[in-house]
Amino acid sequence: MKNLLATFLLLTLLLGLAPAQTPQTPKDDPGVDEVVRITTALVQTDVVVTDKNDRIIPDLKLEDFELYDNGKKQTLAFMEFVSATTGRRVEGNKPSSASSIANTGVPLASEIDGQQGLTSKDLKRVVAFVVDDLTIPLKDVNPVRNLLLDFVDNKMQEGDLVAIVRVVGGKGLLQQLTGDRQILRRAVLAIQPILHPYAVSTRPEPGLPSGPDAFSGSQLPLDMVSNEIAGISDNPEISSPGDDVNQLFRGLSSLTTAMFVVDGLREIPGRKNVVIISGGIPIFEAGSAGTAYNNLTYLLNQLSDRAVRSGVVINTLDPRGLNATPGVVGFDRTETRGNYANEIQGRATGFGRGGASDQATFGPLLAGGAERLGLATVSKATGGVSIVNTNDFGAGIDKIVARSEGYYLLGYRPSGEFDRKFHKLEVKVKRAGVKTFHHSGYAAREDKPRELRTKEEQIAAAASSPLSRRDIDVTPNVTVKLIPPNSSVVDMHLRIDANKLNFTEVGGKHQTSLDIVGFIFDQLGKQKRGFSETINLDLSAENYRIAKTEGLIYSATTDLPQGYYQIRSVVREASSGNIGTFSKYVEIPDLSKERLAMSSVFLFSIDPPATATPLLAIRQVKRTQDLRYAATVYNPKLKGGKPAVTSQLIISQAGKVLMREPEQALEAPAQGSPMIKIGQFGLGKVPKGRYVLTLVITDTLADKKSQTLSRSVDFQVVD
Fold it and tell me: Partners of 47 in the beta sheet?
């Protein structure tokens, strides 16, 4: 076992590796030939075309499109229609360097706890939510949580990457692009009102639920959020949350965060959606606020240019919904907060706060004086959707996502010079009754692709990417043993498939070299642990045969205090530059808080009569053997000195439950000791294949929020 080296900085880890070599182009690098690049030889933009009912039109041909660059008609080199269900259809001469989405529409097999992740070929949809917690009113925080949780639980699909990014109050680990629902749910629960001088309100409304558990009926009082925590005084120097200075800084903060997210998506292939959830993005001229950014057109052009280069569509949603505006007559409604049950009577002669109609009626939007950058204006600049003046937010999200279910990628060689000025794009379709949505333009300057010359750069890029690399197949198994009161031992076992390695035979020995690098990040995104090692393999013929059959095994261990962590590991072969990666989200509970907790599930193969072999990196068990599983349960509640804890074993395959045993009561532990669950079953009649074992623990005496825990681990049955 290799001890992890604590508190290493990223550069220290990477520079400590062996000298760099010139690699071959990695096979599965998402930055190669799949990301939009604007060059003098090729400009690309995506276009959504819908009918009058907002349904995607899938049967257009290259000859149906006309594209104008600064008013000059361009000759289209190719057209590619990308569909989430039918794949891709290309017309024209598409260069090999042109962007495309590896989107087959085929569902992926679920992986255990997100360890394997998505590759660029698996990627289906990318959605990044930017939650503008400077402009969202306090009373709208819970509806925003409900909206996001509904998306994660019910609308997110296999093959999706999702991020939830906050303008002010976010934490690094919870703001990453991921397919791990566990991370996303925690990011949703962490959304709470932020006391900030530039917020809509610098004082919380009394009695409003807040905090990480203010959700689905489990709510904490707002007094948990203090001015001291927020870092502001009782008397902020800002005179009013609605004055010009605050509005300016709210607008700049929102757009800066959105642009940061857009830039961060540049190396992800395909078309991506950014959804800004905001109570409005006001940008005022310099005369009223005394600051820069007095050119609204310049700001919009910057936004469009960054979006088109990243293949991003920016959508906006106003969570304040359809509320009555003072002074508007003929609008009668009642609303029940929490479930948004609305009864609207009569006819609405005006619209609610925050919508485009309000901005046009009650404040200048794009003309003279105090300029305001509205939500609809932001989304229009990139061909996105603006959801305002509605309380049906779920339907709004559905509309946003549906726009990426089918779209056209157009490519052309620009006829004019690259003058570094903003070029306006216009797309026309030769069919009556259609609507087109596309980026408003781009800055005529050439993109330079990122070059990863050294192995250190390649490893760092692979470790930080939300997409997995599987040039080398790496199968991980991460186990956690809890140590009261608030520590743990974390073991990492890797099985490296030797069949994808490029061995060189020298003197009867089979040789290759692997760099194995690992990082552990805490919930703030700071590196807490790490390890790096270069392994030079020199295998005999017999060991080479075993390696090709069973794989290569690498193990490491460390201790971690209570908290939330992500483990990321990279395996890179020196000779080919091929890379395999994995990531794992780990929660280490604080046992001193006396909440129900559980270790990982540990597997053992049992040979007659009773020889137990731990199943670590290789979790294969023969049908002539029994499979034993074990887990430790901490902090069971007692009533009359006795617990009320049950366990249930579930066996599934490819997402289908094959066996669900009845709940079984766990025996009472010794005084002050944890409970141990051990089970065993035979495999004589089980077909060969890969299965998932899930152990569910329920404590009926515990708080309803933490009565049930589950852990899963996969295993393979062989002859």
Answer: 408, 438
